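Troubleshooting: if your tokenizer reports a length mismatch, compare your output against this known-good record of 289 residues.
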Amino acid sequence: MALVGFGVNTVLAFAKMLAGVIGHSYALIADGVESTLDIFGSLVVVGGLRVASAPPDRGHPYGHGKAEPLAGAVVSLALLGAAAGLGIMSVREILTPHHAPEPYTLLVLIAVILIKEVLFRSALKVGDHIDSTAVRADAWHHRSDAITSVAAFVGIGVALLGGPGYESADDWAALLACGVIAFNGVRLLRPALADLMDAAPSPELDQRVRTNALAVPGVIGLDKCRARKMGFDYYVDLHIRVDGSIPVRDGHRIAHRVKDSIRAAIPEIADVLVHVEPEADANGRSLGV
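Known-good structure output:
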């Protein structure tokens, strides 16, 4: 999906900047610059996904999954940078008189809006399916590009209908779109940083792990249940309580059953580290001792 976005963004960026220069539309030129940033974002996502899918090695025993949210964070920062840069350029153009845009630039923007909306929906569906922060960030980058194109369309339409004195309408519309782009950048940066900081997963995942662990025969209770996300997978650290009188071998078997049960029920969990603790009585002594 990211490779498709890269190819489409390359064509659209060239088309918008060319149409903007010929058609005297600075909003369309700025929109082309934003599409160029989309190209960068697609490349970052592709690179991040490739690194994240690499198997564990000696230097990275837990794999390379952190490359995925890192790519998402980079794309989010690119959105914020685009919003700031386009905002500055829009203000400069508002203060500088210029020619009204050509009518045909509206046709270019209509095509861009339709294509970008299709890309957004397709990429977001893929990102939700594989639970990828980077792909979702790339999807919203497409939506942000569509928003700037809508703003440019409105602005150019006002400039054409209003006539002399309304030439800067497209620049005001582009400035408004910058705020929307910045909002999306902040919204997407938060989950990427959460994954990088090993934030706790959703309560639903935690409850599913606990439920499956407690359903295994021999498990009396749970002490700790921690999980963190590494790319597309989760790693769980679980402390179970068993009868303190059973042999170590039996406790080890129970632990393996817990691990197998959780991984079978929740495929997105790559590994479960199970620590076995003896159940204690009211006096703090292990049962059976």
